[in-house]
Amino acid sequence: MAVYDLEEQEQISELKAWWAQYGNFVVTLAVVAALASVGWQGWNWYQNRNAADAGVLYYAVQQAAEQQDAQKAREAAGRLIGEHGGSVSAQLGALLSAALQFESGDLANARAQLEWAADKGKDAALRDLARLRLAAVLLQQGEHDAALARLEAAPSAAYKTRFDDLRGDVLAAQGKKAEARAAWQAAIDGLAAEGEEAATLREVVRVKLESLGV
Question: Residue 62: CA atoms inside 13 Å, Cβ hemisphere, count?
Answer without folding.
Answer: 10
